[in-house]
Write a structure and sequence with these properties.
- By secondary structure, the protein is mainly alpha-helical.
- The chain has 2 domains: 114 residues, Hypothetical protein, domain 2 (Endonuclease III, domain 1, Orthogonal Bundle), CATH 1.10.340; 74 residues, Endonuclease Iii, domain 2, CATH 1.10.1670.10.
- Helices cover 59% and strands 0% of the residues.
- The chain is built from 12 helices and no strands.
- The longest helix has 19 residues.
- It starts with 10 loop residues before the first helix and ends in a 5-residue tail after the last helix.
Amino acid sequence: MVYGRNSAGTTLQRVARTEKRDPFKVLIATILSQRTRDENTDRASKQLFAKFPSAKALAHAPLRTVEHLVRPSGFYRVKARAIKQVAQIVVNKHGGKVPGDLESLMELPMVGRKTANCVLVYGFGEPAIPVDTHVHRISNRVGIVKSKDPERTEERLLQYFRREHWIEVNELMVRFGRTICRPIGPRCSVCELRSYCEHFSKYRCNRIDSKP
């Protein structure tokens, strides 16, 4: 799958690029990205990092100030408390450095398996496949997996793709899922994968969309 390789990329890719793959900033941006849109995450992340660019700075930041800075991301009170706690744990338990293993990452507030894998991929450049709603949906639609469990989807994708491609999978599928294989109104008429797609094969009479 090569779709979107030259497009602007997701928020996490931009944070990794502009912040020189800083694991802490990727971690915080990933938490802020939960249940919101990319543009909201972008705005909140930029405001936050401009004021508090490190784990130590954020750990000592006034909660009210953090809430104000991350407000564009939504659920800002919950997220502000969580990222302050994350910063404090990173400083006090890990010497100011984000841990680079899945288990330690998942011990942090608001960090599940997907978020931890995002940090590994975008923050450390380590091979992993974060499974978000787009990755899970596309994998099931195309027929790579038949499962309602994202962890099972991750296991299958790790088997399906060669290890050297794992880092690319999330980025490409997220872009593809936002523009082509959308949750509602998938653009099957312009999809280059439709001849391989089980979902299209099953529902082809209804799946050719009327709008580009």
